[in-house]
């Protein structure tokens, strides 16, 4: 009788351990399924969101996206603008071949160049 | 430089001894680029009008920080250049391309201080009194 009881507890114990190990295995396996939806979720929003920020600044700053890099402007050598010299209150004004606006005698012995920002 | 610039014009430019020139620095984002491009687009139609825009933008700096396209169109119109031509220049990127080109050029010249005033190769940094410029100009005159 005692042998049967010990055998019963032994079998019961083995069954219990077996079910726990299965649970642990399932816990590990659940990581993989969560990874799959994560990829799907992140893939779609980036595809949809990417054009939005690019379009939005175009409205307020129409050319901000056209001049994103310095190299782009260097690669595209801009032709010198053909601008006729005029006068401001009797003082000559024009545009140099380097595309710098000037005010004053184009042959003046001294040139004062202001490298500045309107802001 | 706007303050000293007026005195330089009155003292030296009107006499034909000096010409002043403006090369934009684009260090402060869209406001820098858009204002410079707008001034250039105005100047392409009339270089004298560039200087009117130049003075106005310096006087309205606080507005330029947040100004949009409409503000520049309005300024161009008030200065008296053709509005449609201005809008075409501003929108198609001609002005933006040239001011960016100028900004790249000054970097190649290693000009990083704002403002930097170059007088026949001698550089003065920051806003200075007229007398500072006057001394350098007189020394440079033949």
Number of strands of chain B: 3
Question: What count of helical segments of chain B does DSSP give?
Answer: 8
Which residue ranges of chain B are poorly predicted, with pLDDT under 50 across at least 5 consecutive positions?
none
Structural class of chain A: alpha+beta
Give the spatial strand order of the biggest sheet of chain B: 2-3
In percent terms, what proportion of residues of chain B is strand?
Answer: 5-15%
In angstroms, what is the radius of gyration of chain B?
16 Å
Question: What does this entry look like structurally?
Answer:
- The complex is a heterodimer of chains A (119) and B (142).
- By secondary structure, chain A is of the alpha+beta class.
- Chain A has four helices and four strands, in the order ααααββββ.
- Chain B is mainly alpha-helical and 142 residues long.
- Helix content of chain B is 65%, strand content 11%.
- Chain B has helices at residues 2-13, 30-45, 47-59, 61-64, 69-79, 83-92, 94-108, 130-140; strands at residues 18-24, 116-119, 122-125.
- In chain B, α2 (30-45) runs parallel beside α5 and α5 (69-79) packs antiparallel against α6 (83-92).
- The interface between A and B is large, with 48 and 75 residues.
């Amino acid at each position: 009788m005692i042998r049967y009881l010990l055998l019963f507890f032994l079998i019961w114990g083995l069954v219990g351990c077996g079910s726990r190990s299965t649970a642990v295995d399932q816990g590990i396996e659940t990581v993989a399924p969560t990874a799959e939806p994560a990829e799907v979720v992140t893939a779609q929003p980036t595809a949809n969101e990417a054009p939005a920020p690019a379009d939005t600044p175009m409205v307020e700053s129409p050319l901000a996206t056209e001049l994103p890099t310095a190299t782009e402007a260097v690669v595209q050598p801009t032709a010198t603008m053909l601008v006729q010299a005029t006068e401001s209150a009797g003082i000559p004004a024009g545009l140099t071949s380097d595309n710098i606006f000037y005010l004053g005698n184009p042959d003046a012995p001294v040139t004062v160049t202001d490298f500045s920002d309107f802001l | 430089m706007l303050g000293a610039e007026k005195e330089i014009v009155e003292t030296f430019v009107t006499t034909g001894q000096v010409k002043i020139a403006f090369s934009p620095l684009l260090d402060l984002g869209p406001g820098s680029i858009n204002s410079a491009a707008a001034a250039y687009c105005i100047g392409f139609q009339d270089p004298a009008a560039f200087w009117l825009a130049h003075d106005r933008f310096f006087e309205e700096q606080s507005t330029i920080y947040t100004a949009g396209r409409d503000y520049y169109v309005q300024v161009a119109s008030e200065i008296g250049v053709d509005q449609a031509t201005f809008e075409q220049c501003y929108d198609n990127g001609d002005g933006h391309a040239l001011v960016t080109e100028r900004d790249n050029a000054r970097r190649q010249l290693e000009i990083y201080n704002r403002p930097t005033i170059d007088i026949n190769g001698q550089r003065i940094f920051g806003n200075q009194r007229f007398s500072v410029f006057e001394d350098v100009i007189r020394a440079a005159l033949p």
